[in-house]
Structure formats: C-alpha cells, structure tokens
Write a structure and sequence with these properties.
Order of helices and strands: HEEEEHEEEEEEEEHHHHHHHH
Number of strands: 12
Number of domains: 2
Radius of gyration: 26 Å
CATH topology of the largest domain: Rhopdopsin 7-helix transmembrane proteins
CATH class of the largest domain: Mainly Alpha
Structural class: alpha+beta
C-alpha cells in the first residue's frame, strides 16, 4: 500500500480524534451556571445553593433614562425609575441591580454595560470602562470582561451603572452578570481566558504550519489562502471575548472594533479562495469576482463609515454570506460525484460548522437542540472545521508532492534536455 493510501487511513483515525479533542476543550473550559430571571430589577438568590454552582442574572433592571447618577442620587429620582431594558430606551442612562444573597463574600463577572460605563458596587466606584456621557462628544467607548468581588454583610449587593451608547446600533444588557463564590467565579473567568488562549494558539500554529507547507510547494495555493485565513481568524479571536490581543496591543476601542469587523469580509474571501483551490472548477469566475467586489466594498465600509452605520450594515452582510455559502454548498453537491479524500474531509468539517451555527441561531431563539446545554456551539464547531481543513490540505499537499515526484515512464535517453 503506497504512502497516499496510508494517509487515507490516517485521516480516518485522525479526524475523529480532532473532533473529540475540540469537544473536550469546549466542555472542559465552559462556564457552568444557571440563568435566573429578575423580578422588577431584583434577583432573590437567598435560597440558592452557591456550593452547587453559580447564577447568571438575566432580565429587566431598574433604570432612569437620560440621566447619569451616582448611587446616592438614584433614590432621589424615585419618580423617574422605570423597569425594563435601558439600552432600548435611551442613549445614556443609569441602572440599578439589587441581588439578595446570604451574607458573605461573592464573585461577580460579566461584560461592561453598553459601550461606556461606570460601575458602582455598594456605592463604591469599582470599574471605569470608557467614559459615559450625555452626548457623543463627551463619551468615549470601551468594553471589557470584568471580574470583581463584593461583600454582602447585609445580604444585599447593589450595583449601579452609568452607561451610554453612541457607537453601536444595539446596546448590551445591564444585567448579564454571573454571581457565585469568589473561587467559582475566578474559575469561570480563568476558563474563559483559557479557551480564548487555546483558540488563539491553534490559529497561530495552523498559520505557521501552512506557511511552511506553502514554501515547500508554492504551486499548491490552498496553503497560502488558508494560512492567511488562519491569521485573519487569529486576529478576530484576539479581539473578541476576553480581548487578549486588544490588551496586548493597547488598541483603542475604535481601532479594535474596525479590525474585528474587517476580519469578516477578509475571512469570507480567503475561505472562498481556499475552497476554489481545493475544488477546482466548482466556483465560477463570475462568482469569485462578485464576492471579491462585495467583500472589498464592505471592507471599505469597515474602514471609513460611522460605527453605528457599520453595525447596522453588518446584518445585511451576514445575509450575503449566508446566500454565498448556500450557493457554494449547492455547487459542491451538483459538481462533486466522487470527491477525493481531502474534499470529503472539508465537506464533513463544513457540515459540522453549519450545524453548530444553526444550533446557535435556534438557541438564541429559545429553541434548544442537541447538545442540550445552555452554551453556544459555533466557536468549537469552527475550530473543528479549521482542523479538518488543515488535515485535508496536508493530504492534498502530499498528493501534489507525490504527483510531482512520480518518475517519468520515458527512458532517460529520450528526455528532453
């Protein structure tokens, strides 16, 4: 049995191992908590067992629209207090969250509210993320994953947040906070950072590996396009979640936001070019040119337009991506009758990713399908797809090398000089 056929069996063993390893990383670094809905802006956790897990606060909060108030000023505006989602009512506001718990010390974790916020816990200023203001020119945006501890000597944790949003079409909820013992929340925070670091490391290592493969065989362009895709998604992974790359590079909010959005058109185009190299003749020239024009146009929008308009236009670009993906899938089904091993590997990986994306879309629509857990799946599904793509292109590279090294059937004296 020749080396190429051996690699087919290696793929059959390696791919399930990759899928299981990614699933293990996903399950081992996930946060375990229970969603708790508010009652008029108050969460009653006095009867909850914090030894068994942590609790994610969701739902409506108390807030005063069009006002930036300190904790001691909030009660003085009693007649103005509303119950609901402040980000839907005003560009700037002050919210109050009251958590009823057994007396003791607690850990809290969550993303900062809206896109600029001051956070007070029990009347003490704890965090300043950006600078909320009553107008766009007096506000500076910022977002962070926050982790802090709080004492509840009287059985109440009160969180007051001043927040404003002049940079994005939709604001974040003021109540997405996870509460638990300090040790449990510290563990959840560490898992979030660990997962982000693992994803960053995977994309960077894949980019280096395919850069080497490209230099070994420059005629096989799939390695070049996939290397650039991995670098693009390395950048995106570092700009989202705990924002590891943003902190290391000390990027301001606007630079990080535009770079994050730029990764979408670049990543889409690079993946299209990778698939074109893996599946010659499937994606017509007009389709590639049209996608190049659309992605180039959206990249210009990412660089030059206002961030509010950019966030609004993003949803339409996602529709274009979905339609382009559907077209590619149809073309693959029509054109591929007997796919090669590397092509079949890509198709299986793409199927896993599409299932993960569909599952998350249904999850955010309150429809839960397998796996029956309150966690998103698309991130790990994308990681599986990328590793499958890596395995496919390694196999394809070996196929190209074997083809180039195949000895000629002509006798040496008949070869042209």
């Amino acid at each position: 049995m020749n080396l190429l056929n051996n690699k087919k069996y290696i793929l059959a063993i390696l791919l399930p191992v990759i899928a299981v390893a990614c699933a293990w990383i996903w399950s081992g670094t996930g946060a375990q908590y229970t969603h708790i809905m508010s009652e008029s802006g108050t969460w009653d956790l006095r009867m909850k067992d914090f030894g068994a897990g942590s609790y994610d606060l969701v739902g409506e909060v108390e807030y005063i629209p069009n006002a930036l108030l300190k904790p001691e000023e909030f009660s003085a505006w009693e007649s103005e207090i509303k119950i609901g989602m402040p980000q839907e009512a005003a560009s700037f506001s002050t919210s109050r969250i009251r958590i009823l718990v057994p007396p003791g010390a607690y850990g809290l974790m969550g993303y900062s509210s809206d896109y600029a916020s001051l956070v007070y816990i029990n009347s003490i200023l704890i965090e300043n993320v950006g600078m909320p203001g009553s107008a766009a020119d007096t506000s500076s945006p910022g977002t962070e994953l926050l982790f802090y501890t709080a004492e509840a000597p009287n059985g109440v944790i009160e969180i007051v947040q001043q927040a404003s949003n002049y940079v994005y079409r939709e604001g974040d909820s003021h109540a997405n906070i996870i509460v638990g013992t300090p040790e449990a929340i510290r563990g959840i925070y560490a898992k979030q950072v660990t997962l982000a670091s693992v994803v960053l490391g995977c994309f960077f290592a894949l980019a280096l590996a395919h850069l080497v493969l490209y230099f070994l065989l420059r005629s096989y362009k799939a390695n070049l396009w996939f290397m650039l895709f991995c670098l693009t998604w390395f950048m995106r992974a570092g700009l989202t979640g705990p924002k590891i790359l943003s902190m290391l590079l000390q990027l301001d909010w606007y630079a990080a936001f535009r770079l994050e959005y730029l990764t979408v058109p670049f990543g889409t185009l690079l993946m299209c070019m990778t698939l074109h190299a893996l599946f010659p003749g499937v994606l017509q020239k007009w389709f590639r040119q049209a996608l190049l024009a659309v992605c180039g146009g959206f990249a210009c929008v990412c660089v030059f337009t206002d961030t509010v308009l950019l966030s609004e236009l993003m949803r339409y670009f996602y529709i274009i991506i979905f339609l382009a993906t559907a077209y590619i899938v149809v073309r693959l089904c029509v054109k591929l009758r007997k796919p090669k091993a590397e092509q079949l590997t890509v198709l299986v990986g793409a199927g896993i990713f599409l299932y993960g994306a569909l599952r998350d879309i249904l999850y955010f629509s309150d429809i839960l399908i397998f796996p029956l857990t309150e966690r998103t799946l698309a991130e790990v599904a994308l990681l599986i797809f990328v590793f499958f793509q890596m395995a496919a292109m390694f196999h394809g590279t070996m196929r190209e090398v074997a083809a180039k090294e195949k000895p000629s059937k002509e006798p040496p004296w008949k070869k042209k000089s």
